[in-house]
Design brief:
It is a single chain. By secondary structure, this protein is α/β, with parallel strands linked by helices. The protein has 2 helices and 8 strands; from the N terminus they run ββαββββββα. The strands form 2 sheets. It has a 5-stranded mixed β-sheet with strand order 2-8-5-4-3, with no helix packed on it. A hairpin with a 2-residue loop joins strand 4 and strand 5. It is globular, with a radius of gyration of 19 Å.
């Protein structure tokens, strides 16, 4: 942890009964912090092709792929209700929802195995393999 960062605490009482959510990871920054009517405007416009999904967002063509969270893991959507006044203060987040899949979007081309998020999601399987015990027969 750097000098300027503070610990982030998860409010464990928020873990009970969290709803499942539908997630879309867009290749842009949306300067909005709050709810948005994604189900009303974005989701109905998605077209499912043979290999990928496609949609237009603010006039730009997006190609998407639904990706599963690695087996044995669950995705968490966290929310910070009150931001602290200083960087040194402890921060508290609560669980807003969970997810098992998310749709990853790219501009103009479908996500591939070289995309950062897809590489990161393959890490648990790689870590398990390299940390697995080696039997004498394999040596």
């Amino acid at each position: 942890m750097s000098e300027r960062s503070s610990p982030i605490r998860l409010d464990l009482s928020s873990l009970q009964g969290a709803p499942q959510d539908v997630l879309h990871l867009l290749p842009c920054e949306v300067e909005h912090n709050g709810s948005a009517p994604v189900g009303r405007y974005f989701t109905p416009a998605i077209r499912q092709g043979l290999q990928e999904k496609s949609v237009s967002f603010r006039g730009r063509s997006l190609k998407g792929q639904e990706v599963m969270v690695p087996q044995g893991y669950v995705g968490l959507v966290l929310k910070e209700d009150q931001r602290p006044c200083t960087e040194e203060e402890e921060r508290t987040v609560r669980l807003k929802s969970t997810f098992g899949t998310l749709t990853v979007w790219n501009l103009e081309r479908a996500p591939s195995a070289d995309d950062g998020l897809l590489l990161a999601l393959s890490w648990p399987r790689i870590a398990e393999a390299i940390h697995a015990p080696v039997s004498r027969k394999e040596q």
